[in-house]
Each structure stands twice: as structure tokens, then as C-alpha cells.
Amino acid sequence: MDVETILKTVEAFANNTHGSQKRKYTADPYIVHPIRVMQMCREYTEHLPVLCAALLHDVLEDTLTTKAEIHNFLLAHMSVPFALETVDLVEQLTDVYIKDKFPRMNRGLRKQNEAERLSNVSGMAQTIKYADIFDNTDIAYNDPDFARIYLREANELLNVMKNGNADLRNRAIKQVESSLLRLNLLA
Known about the structure:
By secondary structure, the chain is mainly alpha-helical. It has helices spanning 3-18, 32-42, 48-56, 59-62, 67-75, 80-93, 107-118, 123-136, 139-142, 144-160, 166-182. The mean pLDDT is 95.
């Protein structure tokens, strides 16, 4: 199966798992976000597991789909090593310090622990996270109050995640800084 067919198949799977979910603040189907993340990653790499993980990066976190379901699906469409690598990247990108699992931790502490964890994930996972952060900066236009929190958290993540694609990281840093300036939060 060629790369474009695999990507379209993975996109359809991700779209199906997200079901009727919409992008926050818009009427867009959720899948528009993972597609944009994948397209941004593709400007820097053609490595299939990275592109597929970008499409799937929110599936474990935001749907009822399991790691085994993703793995079994991928095995039907790509080599075993690529399927394993893709699932590993998706796992690396899935938040661990969530409110349901750590109800006694406040958001700040959960995000601090998550930043420490993400500082140690692979460079490929960090590259996907840079694109994810970049794409999520639209929050500055849609919810300035929450943007104040999110953009500071994103800035902290970018400060500690240094192993991914340097050009994309710099692009994400500039985008977050621009969004912070727009909200008058950066001197």
C-alpha cells in the first residue's frame, strides 16, 4: 500500500474514532486538527509513523479507542515495525497526568508533571507536539481567558522539549509568543 493510501486510511480511522466530536470553539469536525498537525509535521519529515501518529495523537486521550485497537488496525495497513512505532508515538503523546487519574493534583501540578514527562519523550514525539501546540494557538482568538492559561503552559512545554525538529520548535515558539503578545501577556 502506498503512503498516501495509508495516510488516508489512518485519517478515516481517526475520524471514525473521534465520531461526532467537534473542535472547541468551532463547528469543524475534530479531524481537522489532527490533519493540520500531520500536514505541519510533513513539512519536516516523511517518516510514516510520525505522520500516522500525528493523525492519531488525540485518539487514546479523547476517545474510547484502546491501544490494542489502534495496533490491530495499523497492522492491517503497514509493516509491524511501523505499526509498533506509530502506537509508541501515540502513547508518548497521550497525557498521563489527567484529572481522573490524579484528582488531588491541581491543574498546575498536573501540567508541571506532564511537562517533565514530555521533556523525556522521543524527538519524533516532540516534533508532533510542536505541531499540536502550533495548531492549538488559535485559542487566543476564540477564548482569551483560557488562552492565558494554555499559552503559558505551551510556552513552558516548548522550553523543556528540545529534542524534536529544531525548525518546527522555533516556529511553534514564535507562534506562542505572537499569541501571548496578542493578549498582552508578553513584554
